[in-house]
Amino acid sequence: MNSSDQQVPFRRTVVSYVQRGERMTVGQQRAWDRHWAELGSDVTELPEGPLDVESWFGRSAPVVLEIGSGMGETTAQLVAAQPDVNYLAVEVYKPGLAQLMLRAEKLEVSNLRLLRGDAIVLLREHVEPGSLDEVRIYFPDPWPKKRHHKRRLVQPESVELITSRLRPGGVLHLATDWENYAEQMREVCEAQSQLRNRCADEPGGWAPRPDWRPVTKFENRAHDEGREIHDLIYERV
Fold first, then answer.
1. Which of these, 154, 158, 95, lies nearest to 122 by C-alpha position?
2. Where does substrate bind (predicted)?
3. Which end of the chain has fewer CB atoms at under 10 Å, N or C?
4. What string of pLDDT tens digits covers the 237 residues of the chain?
5. Is there a catalytic annotation at residue 141?
6. Of the candidates 198, 28, 42, 8, which has an alpha carbon nearest to the alpha carbon of residue 115?
7. Measured on CA atoms in the order 96, 99, 100, 101, is the torsion positive or negative?
């Protein structure tokens, strides 16, 4: 265990996700069979110690980690738009990862690798401190009922861990369509001394919606239901 792990001894008893069914469509299964061995790995099957990102991608490049890629609708487009980065997507839902590989195949991207499992375990046990250029958490499960707020991914301990894995100048980008969760995200990040809000001068500290982040069907649904989208962009100092 390295010294940074000792500073961030985050051990969860409650996780932020639920186990879902793994039934896949024929197309998803084919994508899984074609690509998983090369592009994917289960977090629980990673060798002990830091993930060798450069060897996996076959190059040295800035590393972006997206936590919770869902069905890959946004992720595939983001990866295609940034061929100069090594893009890691971590997700627990197997059909979602398969669908992401289908989308990536269609867009002919080569700079994507996928990890199946708990992002906190990945960060804590397999990501070196100061090695990530950006962490993205877009529309995580809001766990809207108050008694379930403890399940939310963005908590003081998880943000401290994420921050420790960012390089100085690295970025944590959050987005949610649940106002209560947005406020919690802002409160947690503002309390982290090593993070600086890049948009502190904007109203409420919210970041303007980046043009490069694709609008998903879930985001459109949020608009239809009258929920405002909030982005937060923090930089490690």
1. 158
2. 145, 177, 216-219
3. N
4. 444 444 545 555 566 555 666 899 999 999 999 999 999 999 999 999 999 999 999 999 999 999 999 999 999 999 999 999 999 999 999 999 999 999 999 999 999 999 999 999 999 999 999 999 999 999 999 999 999 799 999 999 999 999 999 999 999 999 999 999 999 999 999 999 999 999 999 999 999 999 999 998 878 889 899 999 999 999 999
5. yes
6. 42
7. positive
Burial of residue 170 (CB within 10 Å: 0-12, 13-18, 19+) is: buried
* Cα gap 70→230, rounded to integer Å: 19
Q: Annotate 115-126 with b (16+ C-beta within 10 A) or e (fewer).
A: bbbbbbbbbbbb
**Which among 141, 211, 224, 231 is annotated as catalytic?**
141
What would the two tokens of residue 3 be? 């010294």
Per DSSP, what are the bridge partners of residue 138? 175
Q: What are phi and psi of 195, to 5 degrees?
A: -115, 140
Q: Which residues are annotated as a binding site for substrate?
A: 145, 177, 216-219
221/42 Cα distance (integer angstroms): 32
Decide: 159 and 120 in contact? Cβ < 8 Å.
no
Q: Which residues are known binding-site members?
A: 66, 91, 118, 141, 145, 177, 216-219
CA 185 to each of CA 21, 170, 188, 233: distance values in angstroms, whole numbers, following the listed order: 29, 18, 5, 11
Domains of the chain in sequence order: 41-236 (3.40.50.150)
